[in-house]
From TrEMBL:
GO terms for biological process: nucleoside diphosphate catabolic process. Belongs to the GDA1/CD39 NTPase family. Keywords: ATP-binding, Hydrolase, Membrane, Nucleotide-binding, Transmembrane, Transmembrane helix. It comes from Vigna angularis var. angularis. The keyword Manganese does not apply. The keyword NADP does not apply. The chain crosses the membrane at residues 18-38. This is Apyrase. The gene is Vigan.01G337000. One of its GO terms (molecular function) is ATP binding. GO terms for cellular component: membrane.
């Protein structure tokens, strides 16, 4: 892996182009937590690869990614964090009718956002099910029953009344239940703005290698995430005490 370059001290806030370039947005953070979950549940992780399906329900459309990753690797460059082996869609996926050539990174998307389908279970199914079917083709058959599927919504559903958002989430759950992936109701939910910002920051810094234990500690990158209906700004700071705008966490 190439040693990451330290950012200029005058440009620590990376602009939205970082997210577009690497296409990971909020998703890699889920892999980090999931790795620890599976390790505690199975105790069988001996450098085997695993898969995760993540559906991103944004304000302008719904997108899907499938990640293949590995945990329990001795001497892994990211210490005790999962190692991302591959993400889909990729260049081989362009034959799919879901592929959106207008995206500036590998993107499979249906439009509009799911918040437009209140009391429209058929609309939710038509927007979501093609992604689940596609993901089943990517994940090996023998791995599907152990592959979790996350469906995470952002600003579009955040703007709905609680009961309307719950109806849409219920319709989403009904679609996912009809397929072969692992599912938990807690994996189908609306992210808070703070969670969305934090996951984006972790995804960016994971991808850029600033969490890598085999290299001297480098400053983390900050993030400005300009979404379809929301804006998040996040950076690592030193702060004492409690602050409503500060999220404390420990990785690894």
């Amino acid at each position: 892996m190439e040693v990451p370059k330290s950012p200029s001290k005058y440009k620590r806030i990376a602009k939205h182009k970082w997210l577009i370039k690497f296409g990971l947005v909020i998703l890699v953070m889920l892999l980090l937590f999931l790795g620890f979950y599976l390790e505690s549940e199975t105790g069988k992780l001996n450098a085997s690869s695993y898969y995760t399906v993540v559906v991103d329900c944004g304000s302008t459309g719904t997108r899907v990614n499938v990640y293949e990753w590995m945990v329990g690797v001795k001497g892994a460059i990211k210490g005790n964090l999962p190692v991302l082996l591959h993400s889909y869609p990729d260049n081989t996926t362009k034959r799919s009718s879901l592929w959106k050539g207008s995206c500036q990174y590998h993107c499979m998307q249906t439009e509009p956002g799911l918040h437009n389908f209140i009391n429209d279970s058929l609309g939710v199914r038509q927007a979501l099910e093609p992604f689940i079917v596609w993901a089943e083709q990517v994940v090996p058959r023998e791995m599907r029953g152990n592959t979790p599927a996350f469906v995470l919504a952002t600003a579009g559903l955040r703007g709905l009344a609680l009961e309307d958002a719950d109806r849409v989430l219920g319709d989403i759950e009904a679609v996912v239940k009809g397929h072969s992936f692992m599912m938990s109701k807690s994996w189908i939910r609306v992210l808070s703005g703070k969670e969305e910002a934090y996951y984006g920051w972790v995804a960016l810094n994971y991808r850029m290698g600033t969490f890598d234990e085999n290299y001297p500690k480098s400053p983390t990158l900050g993030l400005v995430d300009i979404g379809g209906s929301s804006l998040q700004i996040v950076a690592e700071i030193d702060v004492a005490g409690d602050d409503v705008h500060v999220m404390k966490s420990r990785l690894g």
